[in-house]
């Protein structure tokens, strides 16, 4: 059964969580050092392939008023990179 991978993007570290096969619960999976986009994409590809991931959720931060911040723009750039390099569907999830 396939799973969902959740990504909490950070400029230094990227947190990953994975759903159970029934997609009811999620548990922390690992933290990846964000050394470069290439190494990060490669690591995510390995996780996607080895864990039968069918969907990636990328957390997107907005401020308390729901407006974009500097970090929001970073995450949107990373979202574009993910869409260009991964074969599974990727969705944004409001943190």
Q: Could you write a compact summary of the structure shown?
A:
The chain is of the alpha/beta class and 95 residues long. It has two helices and five strands.
Please describe what this structure looks like.
The protein has helices spanning 37-50, 70-85, and strands at 3-8, 13-19, 26-33, 53-60, 90-94. A hairpin with a 4-residue loop joins β1 (3-8) and β2 (13-19). A five-stranded mixed beta sheet has the order 3-2-1-4-5, covered by helices on one side. The protein has 95 residues and is of the alpha/beta class. The relative contact order is 0.22. It contains two helices and five strands; from the N terminus they run βββαβαβ.
Side-by-side strand order of the widest sheet: 3-2-1-4-5
**H/E series:** EEEHEHE
Q: What structural category do the secondary elements indicate?
A: alpha/beta
Number of strands: 5
Could you say which overall geometry the principal axes of the C-alpha atoms support?
A: globular
| Separation of the first and last Cα atoms | 26 Å
Helix content: 25-40%
Write the layout of secondary structure elements.
Blueprint: E1 3-8, E2 13-19, E3 26-33, H1 37-50, E4 53-60, H2 70-85, E5 90-94
Parallel strand pairs: 1-4, 4-5
Antiparallel strand pairs: 1-2, 2-3
Tags for this entry?
95 residues, five-stranded mixed sheet
